[in-house]
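## Example record

The block below lists the input lines for one assembly entry, exactly as stored, with component labels intact.
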Amino acid sequence: MSQRKIFLVFVAISTVSLLLHHGGHLNWTMEALHLGCPALRSHPAPGLKPKHTNVAFLKTHKTASTTMQNLLFRFAERNNLTVALPVQACSHQFCYPRSFTSHFVHPHTLPPNIVTSHMRFNKAEMQRLMPNDTIYVTILREPGSMFESLFSYYNQYCQSFKRVPNGSLEAFLEEPWRYYRPDEKDSMYARNTLTFDLGGDKDRPATDVAYARGFLAEVDRVYSLVMIAEYFDESLVLLRHLLSWDLDDILYVKLNMRTPSSKRSLTPGLASKIRSWNSLDARLYDHFNASLWRQLSVLGAACVAREVKLLQRAQERLMKSCFGGRMPLLRSAAQIKNKDLRPWQPSGKVDIVGYDLPVNLSRGFSSQAQELCLKLIMPEVQYTRVLLRTQSLRYRRGYQLRPAQQSHPIQQPIHTTLPRHLQVQRPASGTGSTATSKPAAGT
Ligand SMILES: *[C@@H]1O[C@H](CO)[C@@H](O)[C@H](O)[C@H]1NC(C)=O
Ligand SMILES: *[C@@H]1O[C@H](CO)[C@@H](O)[C@H](O)[C@H]1NC(C)=O
Ligand SMILES: *[C@@H]1O[C@H](CO)[C@@H](O)[C@H](O)[C@H]1NC(C)=O
Ligand SMILES: *[C@@H]1O[C@H](CO)[C@@H](O)[C@H](O)[C@H]1NC(C)=O
Ligand SMILES: *[C@@H]1O[C@H](CO)[C@@H](O)[C@H](O)[C@H]1NC(C)=O
Ligand SMILES: *[C@@H]1O[C@H](CO)[C@@H](O)[C@H](O)[C@H]1NC(C)=O
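Predicted structure tokens for the full assembly:
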């Protein structure tokens, strides 16, 4: 009993001292402690343990991963962390769909704490790049809605889809082998995209059960958390606990969405055809959805629900302070006046919406608050550019502070494993190479 009191006093003191360092987050910290999950009492509540800052997030396609990337970018900026970013020749992705190598990383962004830009996962190269206590996280989405989204997003971009008469999803699924060429450029958007992004073989036949099992086990070994897009807030709660982050570290605005009119719902027949065409992805999804729910049940359904509610309330408050009580205005790219906020459009047939800032935002806001509001809704290509600029500045400043470096470069650990010239060869045009001939797509 008295131990419990001592513990509570300790918690109170720690909270107060925490607040002195993180002023302004009083409410959330208090609420989180007050409503905190029972399962957490056995170890320090989040916020009392140092935040884990070395994170590799594998950004998969069409899975709400742009929203996650934005969240990680903001976390990195707030905490002065380094985010590994692609060299210019790779565009804003690590030369996807080529398999990741550390040569794709811009030297001004080394050594990194966080990596989150699109890549095709390569474990050995990632481990070479990242600190050894890095926590690996990724996100999956239900294969039916995912494939429908891929089909619509890459309709004019991916040959396997372009061949289909009338852009008909039904026609594609009726005879996928008629349209799909496994070795063709961009074929990874047309089959088992998640498996491909995770470094697997998208064209293994469904009958190769041993391969599928082995692959699942490998993903399980590498990733501490596999988030599920359908349960995004719940996944964020798990992420927060895993990394000992605060509630305000997981606030987000949904990014890179289509207009509701370019989405469609699937008949059960179509959904099951999608699952069998993408059988490796379907297996991955089922396995990690089950594992997500197991992890959630360890925290306790009531606790998770409370945290989700807190998150949503905090989000509303943030929206209110940023955008005056309403969500920022959802607009098609052409209508967005601020070009820093225009999302990339895959084709004329789908409308990826973005946000515009309210015209009156500049009134009555500190520039710091304005900056945060802008970053919350900044699309990935622009944010990547902004981060590269600020990190390059910081890198050069650091360089000037170390005059010895001019004659005898002090090599940081990562440099020793990298070649001197971090130039990525630009794919010769016309060779069918898949790297960066077009602005590669977002999420
Ligand atoms: C704390 O919450 C109350 C109401 O819930 C609000 O009026 C107040 O501004 C909040 N304080 C801070 C520091 O966020
Ligand atoms: C980040 O760096 C800036 C400038 O060097 C410094 O003022 C700030 O306190 C740092 N923030 C953190 C969280 O370390
Ligand atoms: C991680 O790297 C550090 C420094 O290089 C080393 O001291 C530590 O033992 C390593 N930890 C693990 C778990 O490999
Ligand atoms: C494509 O659309 C046209 C006109 O709507 C229709 O006549 C034709 O049968 C369609 N083709 C396929 C393969 O669905
Ligand atoms: C994910 O798993 C939960 C728990 O087993 C289940 O209720 C839910 O239907 C699954 N979601 C999907 C989209 O399959
Ligand atoms: C901005 O304008 C909208 C509507 O015109 C208004 O509701 C909102 O309160 C204003 N916000 C600020 C910060 O002035």
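The pocket of 2-acetamido-2-deoxy-beta-D-glucopyranose (ligand 1) is lined by residues 24, 26-27 (CB under 6 Å). Residues 35-422 form one domain.
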